[in-house]
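Thread: sanity check for a docking pose with zinc ion

Original post by kr_44:
Hi all, I'm comparing my docking run against an independent structure prediction. Below are the sequence and the ligand SMILES. Could someone generate the full complex and paste the structure tokens? I mainly care about where the ligand ends up relative to the chain.
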Amino acid sequence: MRLKVTIKIDKPLRRGLKIAMNQNSSKWVDIKYERLGDFCYYLGRLGHVDRDCNVMQVAQDEVKEVVYKYGP
Ligand SMILES: [Zn+2]
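Reply from moderator J.T.:
Ran it for you. Here is the predicted complex with zinc ion included:
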């Protein structure tokens, strides 16, 4: 399924959403984004790339391995 939506770009992008299948069950659906501009895969925010991410650089100084919340 492909959707065109309006999003608030000052918030992290949603990685997925729960869809109600019926009254008793729901299913998690991953969201894929196309044609994003500069995107930080660490924070999930538009406007900068992860190599310029101040938050990720602070995290790298504190821990050995930084875990990205967003993938390709
Ligand atoms: Zn960032």
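The longest strand covers residues 16-20. Hope that helps with the comparison, let us know if your pose agrees.
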